[in-house]
TrEMBL record:
Residues 4-32 form the Protein YjdM N-terminal domain. It comes from the Bacteria. Belongs to the YjdM family. InterPro entries: YjdM, YjdM_C, YjdM_N. Residues 34-54 are annotated as: Disordered. It comes from Halomonas campaniensis. It holds the Pfam family Zn_Ribbon_YjdM. This is Protein PhnA. SUPFAM superfamilies: Prokaryotic SH3-related domain, Zinc beta-ribbon. Residues 46-113 form the Protein YjdM C-terminal domain. Coiled coil: none annotated.
Length: 113
């Protein structure tokens, strides 16, 4: 069993050591040894629609009208959501939207305020 890290781009287990960096033969992604060890310690970072990293307690703004599943409510563009909490899963933001209540959002539909 290899002790090399998985590819941060595609998650492949077939990475190999190429001197000062690691290389993924499946997607062609290359990263330094330092970046590989930092990513393993830090875990997956949640990023907004613009690529900015998000953290617990941040305030975000919705960038697209979002229909609330199971109701006729809509979260409008520009709605500010305060004090988010990051969670694992497809919908990686847990929050409370004013006028709607608690819900989960995908980070690709918000930007950091």
């Amino acid at each position: 069993m290899s002790d090399l890290p998985h590819c941060p781009s595609c998650g492949s287990t077939y990475t190999y050591d190429d001197g000062l960096q690691y290389v993924c033969p499946e997607c062609g992604h290359e990263w330094s040894r330092e970046a590989g060890s930092d990513a393993a310690e830090e875990g997956p970072a949640v990023r907004d629609a613009n690529g900015n990293p998000l953290a617990d307690g941040d305030t975000v703004t919705v960038v697209k009208d979002l229909k609330v599943k199971g109701s006729s409510l809509v979260v409008k563009v520009g709605t500010r959501v305060k004090n988010i909490r990051l969670v694992e899963g497809d919908h990686d933001i847990d929050c409370k939207v004013d006028g709607i209540g608690p819900m989960k959002l995908k980070s690709q539909f918000v930007k950091k305020a």
